[in-house]
Specification:
The complex is a heterodimer of chains A (213) and B (251). Chain A is α/β, with parallel strands linked by helices. Chain A has one domain: Class I glutamine amidotransferase (GATase) domain (Rossmann fold, 3-Layer(aba) Sandwich), CATH 3.40.50. Chain A is 31% helix and 30% strand. The longest helix of chain A has 27 residues. Chain A starts with a strand and ends with a helix. The relative contact order of chain A is 0.16. In chain B, 53% of the residues are buried. Chain B has an eight-stranded parallel barrel, surrounded by six helices. Classes of the chains: A alpha/beta (213), B alpha/beta (251).
C-alpha cells in the first residue's frame, strides 16, 4: 500500500487519480502511524514551505517521514515534496526536513517566473525510477529550486535560462521538481516505475527478513 | 528549454461543450470529458474549461465535469467562468482542477487575487483579461463576457494582477475573438512585455500560422484556441507539427 502524505493543504487528488489509473492502491496518510506502516510513500506538495512544515509538525508527521526514509521505505517527493527534503527554504525562511543537505533557492534566471509549462529533463542518472526519463518533457510549475550540497544525488537537470536540478535520487529516495501526475503518459511512466521499484524493494526486504537466523 | 503550450478551450454550457458566436447560436460539440481525454491523447499541453453560463445553479454540473476529467486526464486543466469567491475556488480545486481562472470578480474586487494566491498558491490563480482596442494608445478591459466596459487599461491591469499574486494571465482580444483572422499581436506583445508571469494568448486563431505568430512575434507563452481544434480542420498533432517546422519549440 502506498501512503500519500496529507498535510492538509496539498492537492492529493491528481496523484491518487494517477495511481488509480495504474491500478495501484493508495491511502491518504494523516498520522505518523500510517507513514510508519507504509510500503512506500508519495509526498506531493504545492504552495509554500513554511505552512507545509508547520502542518507536518502539527501532525507529528515530520519525524515519521524522516524515520521512514532513513529505514529505506521507497519515497517519491513531488515539487514541494522534493524541496522539503532539504535543510532550508529561502522562499519563507522555513526550516525543512533536512534529510538531504542543501537549500531551496529562488531560480536565478532572466526568463519568466514562475517556470510554468513543459520542459525537458536531461542528464538523467541511472535509477529504476528515472528509467526512460531522459529527454522527456514534463510539466513544471514553481519558482524555487533545490541546491543539493552533494552533487551525487542529482538525477536530472532542466534548463530555464539556467540549468537547475529537476530530479534527485539516492537509494530508495527519489524527488522530482516536475509533476508526473500532470505530465501525461511520460508522467504515468515515471509513477509506474516508482510502483514497480517499491514492489521490488518490498519483496527484497521480505526475503532479507526470511534469511535472518 | 521551456516549450510553448497549446491549449484547447472547451466552452461548457448545460454539461456539454458548445460553440457559438458571441454567446448566440450555440452548437453542441460533444461531451466535455470525452473531448478532454481526446485532446490530451492528441498532444494538448493543457486544457481550459470555460463555464459560459456561469449560473450558480449549474455549478454542480461543472464540478461533476471537473471530477470526472481529473480521473482520466493527466495534463493540467484550468476552470473558469463566473467564479466569485475563494469558496468556489476551493470547491473546483478540490474537485481536481489544477488552476482556476478569475475575471469579472477580480476586477470588481482585486483583493480576491491576493486572498486566493495566499490560500492556494499563485500557481493555480489565472487572471483572465478581456481587452478591446480603444485608441491607438491602448486597450481597455471589459467584463461580463465582453459586455461591460471598465475604466482599466489592459496593460496596467495585467501588471496589477501580477503584483497581487496572479500566476498567469489569460489574455483575450475582443476585437480578434471569433474572427479566425489571427491573434491581436500588438496587444499580446505589450502585455507579455509588461509582466514577468506567463501570458496565454486567446482569440482569433484560424490557422496554425496564427499560433506560430502569437508564440513568436506576439511573445506569448501559450496559445489558446477553440474552433480550429473542435472543427477538426487542424488537429492538435498537425498544428504542433506545423509549429515545430516553423521553429516554435513544442512538446
Amino acid at each position: 500500500m502506498i501512503a500519500l502524505v496529507d498535510y492538509g493543504a496539498g492537492n492529493l487528488r491528481s496523484v491518487r487519480n494517477a495511481l488509480d489509473t495504474l491500478e495501484v492502491e493508495s491511502v491518504i496518510a494523516t498520522t505518523p502511524q500510517e507513514l510508519a506502516g507504509a510500503d512506500a510513500i508519495v509526498f506531493p506538495g504545492v504552495g509554500a514551505a513554511a505552512p507545509a512544515m508547520a502542518a507536518l509538525r502539527g501532525r507529528r508527521m515530520d519525524r515519521a517521514l524522516i524515520d521512514a526514509i532513513r529505514r529505506g521505505t521507497p519515497f517519491l517527493g513531488i515539487c514541494l515534496g522534493l524541496q522539503l527534503l532539504f535543510e532550508r527554504s529561502a522562499e519563507d525562511g522555513a526550516t525543512c526536513l533536512g534529510i538531504l543537505s542543501g537549500t531551496v533557492d529562488r531560480l536565478e534566471t532572466a526568463e519568466k517566473l514562475p517556470h510554468v509549462g513543459w520542459n525537458t529533463v536531461d542528464a538523467v542518472a541511472p535509477h529504476p525510477v528515472t528509467a526512460g526519463l531522459e529527454g522527456k518533457a514534463m510539466y513544471f510549475t514553481h519558482s524555487y529550486v533545490v541546491a543539493p550540497q552533494d552533487r551525487s544525488v542529482v538525477a536530472g537537470q532542466t534548463t530555464h535560462g539556467v540549468p537547475f536540478v529537476s530530479a534527485v535520487a539516492v537509494d530508495t529516495l527519489v524527488g522530482v521538481q516536475f509533476h508526473p501526475e500532470r505530465s501525461g503518459s511520460a508522467g504515468l511512466g515515471l509513477l509506474g516505475n516508482f510502483v514497480r521499484f517499491a514492489n521490488q524493494e518490498r519483496a527484497r526486504a521480505a526475503q532479507a527478513d526470511h534469511s535472518l537466523p | 528549454m521551456l516549450l510553448k503550450r497549446i491549449i484547447p478551450c472547451l466552452d461548457v454550457a448545460g454539461g456539454r461543450v458548445v460553440k457559438g458566436i458571441h454567446f448566440r447560436q450555440l452548437r453542441d460539440q460533444g461531451d466535455p470529458v470525452v473531448m478532454a481525454r481526446a485532446y490530451s491523447d492528441q498532444g494538448a499541453d493543457e486544457l481550459v474549461f470555460l463555464d459560459i453560463e456561469a449560473a450558480p445553479q449549474q455549478r454542480a454540473t461543472l464540478v461533476d465535469i471537473v471530477e470526472r476529467t481529473a480521473r482520466s486526464v493527466f495534463i493540467p486543466f484550468t476552470v473558469g467562468g463566473g467564479i466569485r469567491d475563494v469558496d468556489e475556488i476551493r470547491t473546483l480545486l478540490r474537485a481536481g482542477a489544477d488552476k482556476v481562472s478569475i475575471q469579472t470578480a477580480a476586477v470588481q474586487r482585486p483583493a480576491l487575487i491576493t486572498e486566493a494566491a495566499r490560500l492556494y498558491g499563485s500557481q493555480c490563480i489565472v487572471v483572465a483579461i478581456d481587452a478591446k482596442r480603444e485608441t491607438d494608445a491602448g486597450w481597455r478591459v471589459y467584463t461580463h463576457g465582453g459586455r461591460q466596459v471598465t475604466d482599466l487599461d489592459a496593460i496596467g491591469w495585467a501588471m496589477d494582477a501580477e503584483r497581487r499574486g496572479a500566476g498567469e494571465i489569460l489574455l483575450t482580444s475582443i476585437d480578434a475573438d471569433g474572427t479566425q483572422n489571427g491573434y491581436d499581436l500588438p496587444l499580446t506583445r505589450a502585455v507579455a512585455n509588461a509582466v514577468q508571469i506567463p501570458v496565454i494568448a486567446s482569440g482569433g486563431a484560424g490557422h496554425p500560422k496564427d499560433l506560430a505568430a502569437v508564440l513568436t512575434e506576439g511573445q506569448a507563452d501559450a496559445a489558446l484556441a477553440a474552433s480550429i481544434f473542435h472543427e477538426g480542420v487542424f488537429p492538435i498533432a498537425d498544428t504542433k507539427r506545423y509549429l515545430r517546422e516553423h521553429g516554435v519549440p513544442v512538446r
